[in-house]
Design brief:
Blueprint (H helix, E strand, L loop, with lengths): L5 E4 L7 H17 L3 E4 L6 H10 L1 E4 L10 E4 L6 H9 L3 E4 L3 H15 L3 E5 L5 H7 L6 E4 L2 H6 L8 E5 L5 H14 L13 H13 L5 E5 L5 H12 L4 E4 L15 E6 L5 H13 L4 E4 L37
Parallel strand pairs: 1-11, 1-12, 2-3, 2-4, 4-5, 6-7, 6-8, 9-10, 9-11
Length: 330
């Protein structure tokens, strides 16, 4: 039996505006065009969300060869390379781009500066689809740096016109350390006009910095492939609080709570609130008696949907809401 008496909920946590928009794009496409809708890569990195959309008729693919002619295709929230965009257009698919607008902003900046002759250092994780998408905006002249050691080894062709871009879901602190190393080696480097790391990643990490010192253990709801969820767990660990990431309540281990008087709970930007509620219910079964929400930043960001996805009620002439309100509750 656990000692924990209280669950402290991080604020904000869970879905961000880019994830909300991406899921809604797939759901609207299914409603408007019927099943199946093809999605290149997991729409967002969450097992529950992906499985839910599969049941509704989405088919997730990695290669465009797996999409039949004339199909409707959605690009995931992480973005895609220019080569994938061009191939999809050439094949004549009906395309809806669910790339997070904050990732698109990075793509636009890369394209603009490349025309001015810039080379780029990209801070990010090799193999992550967002990194592949951003680096794939150019055929050459963009170099990946994963840590400070990479900064010493990177060899751009010239250093007069050099700019930094960042994967949006990184650890704010890790990225700052790598940026400092880049600046030390390349003092003339151009930094992003605005912080590339997205507001939601930053807000969730800031909330964990406040949460972790107040609790005995931190639980992060998120899938193993979710970069921003992994960074939340690492951050709590670094602050000295044992931290575990779970896809759902079934993965909770009772022994994690043996000596925990207070449990901190947060969720990555692609994890729905229904999973958080399931984890709360399980922790209550293990003995917790109260749930309290932290004070935190209220997020009001909303991104517009691509054209062509409005669904009009013929009776009223008004747009139909496709998604129900997100699950809430403590």
């Amino acid at each position: 039996m656990m000692d924990a008496k209280e669950v402290l909920l991080a604020e904000p946590r869970g879905f961000c505006a880019g994830v909300d928009r991406a899921i809604e794009i797939v759901e609207r496409a299914l409603q408007k065009f019927g099943r199946p809708i093809y999605v290149r890569h997991e729409i967002v990195h969450n097992t529950f969300v992906v499985n839910d959309l599969k049941e509704k008729g989405a088919i997730f693919i990695e290669e465009l060869d797996d999409v039949p002619p004339g199909a409707t295709l959605v690009f995931s929230a992480h973005g895609v390379s220019k080569a994938v965009q061009d191939e999809a257009k050439a094949r004549g698919f009906t395309i809806f781009d669910a790339t997070c607008p904050l990732v698109t902003k990075v793509h636009v900046e890369v394209a603009k500066l490349a025309k001015e002759g810039y080379e780029f250092l990209m801070i990010g994780h090799k193999g992550h689809p967002e990194v592949e998408g951003t680096m794939g905006q150019l055929s050459e002249g963009i170099h990946l740096v994963e840590d400070e050691a990479d900064v010493a080894k990177v060899a751009p062709k010239q250093t007069e016109l050099l700019a930094v871009v960042t994967q949006t879901t990184l650890s704010v602190d890790d990225a700052a350390g790598i940026k400092a190393a880049i600046k030390a080696r390349f003092p003339m480097v151009r930094e992003p006009k605005q912080q590339d790391i997205c507001y939601a990643t930053q807000n969730r990490q800031d909330a964990v910095k406040i949460l972790a010192p107040q609790v005995d253990v931190v639980i992060v709801v998120g899938s193993p492939t979710s970069s921003n969820s992994n960074r939340l767990r690492e951050l709590a660990d670094r602050l000295g609080t044992p931290a575990y990431m779970v896809d759902n309540a079934d993965e909770l281990q009772p022994q994690w709570f043996d000596t925990a008087g207070r449990v901190g709970l947060t969720a990555g930007a692609s994890a729905p609130e229904v999973l958080v509620n399931g984890v709360i219910a399980r922790i209550k079964e293990l003995g917790a008696v109260s749930v309290r929400k932290m004070d935190g930043v209220e997020e009001t960001m909303k991104f517009p949907l691509p054209k062509g996805l409005k669904i009009i009620d013929p009776a009223t002439g008004l747009e139909i809401e496709v998604r129900k309100a997100p699950e809430t509750g403590a």
